């Protein structure tokens, strides 16, 4: 649903759009009762048409309305307007941490990143005291504004919040209702979670703020030889103690992380302020060993090299953002590589409508322009309508919030990989015939208006 300036929606007068994503859009709006402006989040009609999602939304909105803290974006009201679900929130005049990262590609100054993450952690501490988990802490969910006392950060978008009791029994959507790059291993594996999953995400977010890039993490939630992602790239101005804080926050085992947000905040503050004779020293007693940052740096380099090799081994004869398809990709022998390369598949250049019956259809990536051809693949770097169809399925049927882009980026690849693991497909993060058949469910649309029917089905 696209709202225009001056339009009245649920009693709110729309001023202008603030942003949009895979789940809906946010608008600046005038409150119909009080003299204030609010951030009005309106979810996609297709989600609202799903009765199961509506019930989840109602329950989560009730949980989030409990929160009242200077480092948490307040939720004032919520409701339904036809198939559209909406939530009126505190309007924060500023930006989000992901925008700050884009403005400083090399990473924020360590002390600034520390202040932002500590503010967010204080807001999370309040939520945890109310028995709520956030479950999707990441830079874009931290808003930053200027106040009388300087810069202040607020944690936003508790739309994936759950009570601790619910989270301990694993939620309906499991790990999938999160952003994989910032999610704890136990979340990605669909296991029981607690407050320490949010602490992992705080560490991953701090890493992103300092490095200017998303953390590499540990694919599939599996332990690596490093025993923790420890993704920080060494910078001369980053205190070693801060790297240690991140490594401990992102430890694979929850027992080795900081156990509370208060403990995490103390460690971060000490890391950026503690100095003896001009030399920094670590002040974090921890019986569990923490991987050395040089090993972490080597690990990060190895990840980058492996990614580069994967890209080099995936020819670009049929990219969904490039020229029309020509010849099949060559098969590869020797060392095992991605399944799409081994089978010599063309890229899924097209998006095609596949009828379910006379009234409904699925939209699927296809290797042919005029029919459904499942013998194709998508990999990191691809873009186009075929990728959009996959991203839409991940959001609408698997609860993975995706930005409104047409790119097969790292979050898409990780999400696909985890679905492959869950459903017994080859776990390489590449979309192909096996993944289509085993791992992905697709939204059902009504024809000819194309509205979401509320159902998700496997591809025929």
What does this structure look like?
It is a single chain. With 460 residues, the protein is an alpha+beta fold. It folds into 3 domains: 8-90, Phosphorylase Kinase, domain 1 (2-Layer Sandwich); 94-309, Transferase(Phosphotransferase) domain 1 (Transferase(Phosphotransferase), domain 1); 316-458, PGBD-like superfamily/PGBD (Muramoyl-pentapeptide Carboxypeptidase, domain 1), CATH 1.10.101. Helix content is 33%, strand content 19%. It is built from 14 helices and 17 strands. The chain has helices spanning 45-48, 51-64, 97-103, 110-129, 164-168, 185-188, 195-211, 240-249, 261-273, 293-313, 339-343, 385-398, 410-423, 433-438, and strands at residues 8-9, 12-21, 24-30, 37-43, 75-81, 84-90, 94-96, 132-133, 142-147, 150-155, 162-163, 346-347, 350-355, 360-366, 376-377, 441-446, 452-458. The chain has a 6-stranded antiparallel sheet. Strands 13-14-16-17 form a 4-stranded antiparallel sheet. Strand 2 and strand 3 (24-30) form a beta hairpin. The two termini are 29 Å apart. Mean pLDDT is 77; it is low at 163-176, 217-231 and 275-343.
């Amino acid at each position: 649903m696209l709202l225009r300036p001056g339009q009245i929606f649920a009693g709110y007068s729309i001023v202008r759009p603030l942003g949009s994503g895979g789940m809906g859009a946010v608008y600046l709006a005038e409150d119909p009762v009080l003299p204030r402006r609010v951030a009005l989040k309106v979810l996609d009609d297709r989600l609202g048409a799903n009765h199961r999602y509506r019930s989840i939304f109602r329950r989560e909105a009730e949980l989030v309305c409990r929160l009242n803290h200077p480092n948490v974006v307040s939720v004032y009201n919520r409701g339904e307007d036809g198939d559209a679900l909406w939530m009126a929130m505190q309007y924060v005049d500023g930006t989000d941490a992901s925008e700050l990262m884009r403005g400083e590609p090399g990473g924020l100054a360590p002390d600034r990143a520390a202040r932002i993450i500590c503010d967010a952690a204080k807001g999370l501490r309040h939520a945890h005291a109310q028995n709520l988990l956030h479950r999707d802490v990441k830079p874009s969910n931290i808003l930053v504004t200027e106040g009388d006392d300087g810069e202040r950060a607020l944690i936003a978008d508790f739309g994936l919040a759950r009570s601790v009791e619910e989270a301990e029994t694993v939620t309906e959507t499991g790990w999938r209702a999160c952003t994989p790059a910032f999610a704890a291993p136990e979340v990605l594996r669909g296991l029981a979670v607690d407050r320490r999953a949010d602490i992992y995400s705080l560490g991953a977010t701090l890493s992103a703020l300092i490095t200017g890039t998303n953390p590499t993490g540990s694919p599939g939630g599996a332990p690596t030889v490093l025993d923790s992602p420890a993704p920080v790239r060494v910078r001369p101005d980053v205190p070693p103690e801060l790297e240690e804080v991140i490594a401990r926050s992102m430890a694979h085992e929850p027992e080795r992380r900081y156990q509370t947000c208060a403990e995490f905040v103390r460690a971060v503050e000490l890391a950026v302020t503690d100095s003896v004779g001009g030399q920094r020293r670590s002040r974090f007693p921890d019986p569990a060993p923490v991987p050395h940052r040089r090993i972490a740096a080597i690990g990060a380099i190895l990840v980058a090299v492996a990614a580069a090799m994967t890209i080099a081994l995936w020819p670009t004869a049929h990219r969904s953002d490039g020229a029309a398809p020509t010849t099949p990709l060559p098969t590869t022998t020797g060392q095992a590589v991605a399944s799409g390369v081994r089978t010599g598949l063309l890229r899924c250049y097209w998006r095609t409508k596949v009828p379910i019956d006379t009234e409904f259809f699925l939209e699927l990536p296809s290797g042919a322009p005029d029919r459904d051809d499942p013998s194709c693949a998508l990999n990191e770097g691809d873009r186009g309508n075929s990728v959009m169809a996959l991203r839409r399925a991940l959001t609408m049927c698997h609860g993975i919030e995706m930005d409104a882009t047409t790119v097969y980026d790292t979050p898409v690849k990780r999400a696909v990989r985890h679905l492959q693991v869950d459903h017994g497909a080859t776990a390489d993060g590449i979309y192909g015939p096996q993944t289509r058949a085993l791992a992905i469910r697709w939204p059902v649309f009504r024809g000819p208006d194309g509205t979401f029917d509320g159902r998700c089905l496997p591809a025929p």
